[in-house]
Specification:
The protein has 15 helices and 12 strands. The strands form 3 sheets. An 8-stranded parallel beta sheet has the order 4-11-10-9-8-7-6-5. It has a two-stranded antiparallel sheet with strand order 1-12. A two-stranded antiparallel ribbon has the order 2-3. The termini are far apart. By secondary structure, the chain is an alpha/beta fold. Helix 12 packs across helix 14 and helix 13 packs antiparallel against helix 14.
Length: 349
């Protein structure tokens, strides 16, 4: 059941080790400015992304929906998104298409004034699998359900390969995406394995408005599916989950590879505000986090707010110590890259 799977994903992500073995943001060192000549209290963290102004240079990335537990999480996240003027995505909305009774676990976010809401559907569901593809009518439904401004299409084929009920057909995804992009402002998102330059060029040709790299370094969905397989002792899927636990393009490298003239969201393994700043210095327009907020959003609104305030402080201190008065000034800051990321940047493109 979809509802059970979503509940499982939340519980595993909150309580188990599901991160990749190396976080590539640690391979980036920013050049410290001992004489910043910046007034900390005047630092401007606002950005304009795809015509929308956000108070901070990061998004609450697509995470969950479809269960009562997810409803509570989405409500706390939406409340914070309103308070801090940040954008918010929801988890895959296929569940809301298949079961209208759980629509409010997504639409609960409509109770809050969020600068932009991001609807979300999986690329594998755009074409026929064992079930019929998501229709144009279905996409219109989920887009309107949360008053979305943008449509995320997430590419999670590694996860599909590992999970027992996974969709294994990818033929025809891009032609369908190209049609959808004519009607909706589409953001293409990976879910932990990143995009290559070839991918980015294909996505640009398909007409997407932006790319969310979702690279290797944070949550591994192969790891999440490993634990699901372990629970039912599916040894074949356990083997696949272990084998592909660290598969993908590192997030910072994917930002570089996706620099093809489209706005970029840097995500995958971002843990704090310094990582957000690193993502922008590497070439992203903004950062994004998902699992980083999950446990706090499930615990209490107060815990979530405390966490976000710490991230904001991280961002402002990083900007101050790199002599950056606003987010645009981060674009030309110097940095050092260590291995293994250095090798990715010089050999992986």
């Amino acid at each position: 059941m979809i509802e059970n799977r979503k509940e499982e994903h939340i519980n595993i992500a909150e309580n188990m080790n599901v991160t990749s073995e190396h976080n590539f943001w640690d391979d980036i060192r920013l050049i410290h400015r001992a004489i910043p000549e910046v007034d900390y209290d005047s630092i401007n963290t606002k950005i304009n992304f795809l015509g929308t102004e956000f108070g901070l240079p990061f998004l609450i990335s697509s995470m969950t929906g479809g269960t009562e537990k997810a409803r509570k999480i989405n409500e706390n996240l939406a409340r914070a998104a309103e308070e801090f003027k940040i954008g918010m995505g929801v988890g895959s909305m296929r569940a809301a298409i298949e079961n209208k009774n759980i629509a409010d676990t997504f639409s609960v976010i409509n109770n809050y004034k969020i600068p932009a809401r991001f609807a979300n559907i999986g690329a594998p569901q755009l074409i026929g699998q064992e079930k019929p593809p998501i229709s144009d009518k279905d996409i219109e439904y989920i887009f309107n359900l949360i008053g979305a401004k943008y449509l995320i299409v997430h590419f999670n084929f590694l996860q599909e390969m590992v999970q027992p009920e996974g969709d294994k057909n990818a033929r025809g995804v891009m032609s369908r995406l190209k049609e959808i992009a004519k009607s909706y402002p589409v953001i293409a998102k990976e879910t932990g394995s990143g995009f290559s330059r070839d991918d980015a060029l294909e996505l640009k040709d398909a007409g997407v408005k932006a790319i969310d790299v979702g690279g290797l370094g944070g949550t591994s969905f192969a790891a999440i599916e490993y634990y699901r397989a372990e629970k039912i002792q599916n040894k074949e899927k356990m083997h696949t989950g272990q084998t592909f636990w660290n598969w993908g393009v590192p997030s910072p490298a994917s930002i570089k590879f996706c620099s093809v003239g489209l706005p970029i969201i840097g995500s995958g393994g971002i843990r704090n505000g310094q990582d957000v700043v690193k993502s922008i210095i590497m070439g992203a327009d903004m950062g994004a986090m998902a699992r980083n907020f999950l446990k706090d959003a499930d615990t209490s609104y107060e815990d979530l707010v405390f966490h976000i305030k710490n991230i904001i402080k991280d961002i402002k201190i990083s900007m101050f110590l790199t002599a950056s008065k606003d987010v645009s000034e981060l674009k030309n800051k110097r940095y050092i890259v260590l291995d293994p990321l250095y090798s990715w940047l010089n050999q992986g493109d």
